[in-house]
Design brief:
4-stranded parallel sheet; elongated
Amino acid sequence: MNHDFPVFTVENSCQDCYKCVRHCPCKAIRVENGRAAVIPELCVSCGRCVRVCPAGAKKIRPDLSRGRFLMGRKKTVYASLAPSYVSYFKEIPPRNLIAAIRALGFAGVSETALGAQAVSAETARYLEQQPNGVYISSACPAAVDYLRKYAPEYSKRVVPLLSPLLSHAKLLRQKFGEEIGIIFFGPCAAKKQEADRHSELLDLSLTFGDLAEWLKQENIDPMLLDTRGCEFVPESAGEGRIYAVEGGMNDTLRGGDGHIQYLAVSGLLNVERILRQDPASADRKDCKLFIECLACSGGCLNGPAMPESDSSLSGIIATARDYDGANSRGRTVPVAIDEPVHPDVPDQPEITEAQIKQALAQVGKHTRADELNCGGCGYFTCREFARALVTGKAENAMCLSYLRQLAQKKSNALIRYIPAGVVIVDRDLNIIECNRHFAELFDESTRLAYEATPGLPGVPLGNIIDFEELFAAALTSGGEMLQPHYVTGDKILNLSIFTIEPHQIVGAIAQDVTSVEMHREHISERAREVIRKNVMTVQKIAHYLGEHMAETEILLREVAGDCHSGEKSSEASRDDQ
């Protein structure tokens, strides 16, 4: 995570969806351990990744603390306010916004559009002096950086002027002194790159969101402030405000040489499509074409720091409301804003065909037919992805087809070798896949069908088993179902039916426990027989003991009786004597 660069990733928030890779026109993203990080030397700070990241993991560098520090360090600080402010702060009148910014301690608020008017005036003069050919605007720093890095042959075609923001900074310093501080508020990430490179002109670049947060932290409500004397300095802008809308710069140039044609191209992918694929066209001498190149589709109203809704028709209307159709031709520019544009091609390692083939093989692509070019990894083609693998920008796991094949192989291996019958069925109770053990649980025809069509895909489950209602119940409930010792035909099965996708797909594991249960039943029967015999033996013993005890009792009684009679006779004899 590089917090020093204008755009960075909050790693813990990254959800490895590769959407940033997919939308990055420079492919300036390195994925490592499933986390996507910006590569500064390749990035042009267009902020497209910030705009599209569904997890909010891509961020524009927060510099609000630096703004507070600058306000304390500099005696006089002016704000440069981008023209798209009317779209971001829709509910706040300009005077109230000026009053709020001044309440933060700023000496004054000026419109960046003044710099745009200066750029348009100098661009018009430059074009009139040039021969036929293709010329490109210098207004968007991200677009200019893109050309310098990825279409260097067009660098000489960029009008050699500063951007509107840097031109505005020069105008402010000429007017209020070189020692002033200047903080820009706008919708852009690339302006931070400009501030980093040209600190002698621009002290700091903040977003409109930073400004809103700053006002909130200071408990400043713009609608409650006194707006008397709250005007833009040194004057209000005119036609320069239309720069925020795609084609706005061209509108400020029209009206002079009728032989100049104007074209607006927004979105770096569109810039690539028009320029990089046919670079020879730039040398044509049969026309003079000026191209307004903007990194953000729809213009600055769709900048990475703007709400999604601000590129809508209402945002365009709010920005263009006061434009009266004037152009900037003939305006006096009191400062020099010349700036040559040179190529800045990043170092790229040489990649051989052998390396590409080896990288493709790593993700299971051995022939041209294997190269699906699905774009799931974020790259347009499999070969582009292979190049990213070679340079360490990508990981094998980014290839969705490779992951699917890998998961399928693992799944097949598990299903094939698990020592039980496995079946997966869809909501119509048709088999999606099963293993050999499942087919062998049933009749010979099922086994033969499996031999002919492994997995039995599409076969109705009811053609094989007579208990498909259990699967239907699991599909309906979306839960699990256990059926131990389920008897079907001459089999006894332990069934575990489980949900894979609620109400759509269920699976089941069936274990044949017939032999185990029969063996257990045999043992139980043997045990019952032994117990029965033991009971009978005990009963016989008890019977024999009972008879013996009875005879013994009778004998003893007889003996006891005889003894008693003898005693009585003896007593009688004694009495007679």
